[in-house]
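Handout for the seminar on molecular recognition.
Each group receives one record of this type.
Step one: identify the two inputs.
Step two: read the structure output and locate the region that could contact tryptophan.
Step three: write two sentences on what you found, then compare them with the reference statements printed after the record.
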Amino acid sequence: MERVFSGIQPTGALHIGNWLGALRNWIALSERHECVYSIVDLHALTPSPPPSAEEMRRRVREVAVTLLACGLDTSRCTLFVQSEVPEHAELAWVLGCQAAMGDLQRMTQFKEKSEQAREIVGLGIFAYPVLQAADILLYKATRVPVGEDQVQHLELAREIARRFNRIYGATFPEPEPILSPTPRVFGLDGVRKMSKSLGNEIGLLEPAESVKARLAGAMTDPARKRRTDPGDPAKCNVFTWHGYFTPAAEREECAKGCRTAAIGCLDCKEVLRTHLEKVLAPMRERAAALLAEPAAVERALRAGAEKARAIARATMEEVRHRIGVR
Ligand code: TRP
């Protein structure tokens, strides 16, 4: 069976963009493959300045609860926090010795993130893709579900694996991306990718009233200025969201109502909200139950780390032998 690996940064509250683009795919894959999923807190140390220790702990707990609330079943996959498996950092050093500076410098994400750095451009943000390669290769994963923006990092992981194999003998398979089936989800502003840092997101665990209020303010067809103007669903981001959540027949009705101005944007948003709630309400409920039982979440993460460590330890033993260190 193929092994799948993917990681998610603990950036805080996850949103419907994360769910559509990654999480629901993680869940689907865990039904068919051996999946290893990690909350990559070591990657989250790379911004300058980094989050405080308290903030880091809070985010990791929040992401863990959200993943479980979404329906990720830890009896069918391995879910763990990266820093609980020290081999990630260890392998990152070894692989870093086979990563070309020139390749790292070409990474789009490095260029973007180093511009956002407020204090220093640290070695960590430069070496970020090396740690990512270590995450994947430590488990000898062959398939990696990611978004379009991570394909370049994956290509680098393949390059590092090839170089290592050439020098030290066949050790790592070359991991292939599994591209997210949902290309890219735009935010409430209708123009930029949904992201918590832009504040244009609908959070997975947001209270229902807050979802309603934020949806009411969401950008629709910019040309539809008055309730009596006909609109164009093809130019409306909310209509794109209907595509993710609303059954086709009802969606078509909304489209027709929009084109003929029979319904207003708020009516259309209310239909969307009904269907969105069918996804979000159960998540909120499960999250509330998990938050009431933090020890159970801790136990699940500990058990995940235990399973991950067993694989990681075996790979590192092989790597140490191949490179000649003790
Ligand atoms: N860089 C990825 C992101 O920002 C997160 C990540 C870290 C990852 N390690 C990984 C993804 C390994 C896939 C495989 O989305």
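Reference statements: The first strand starts at residue 3 and ends at 8. The chain is about 55% helix and 5% strand.
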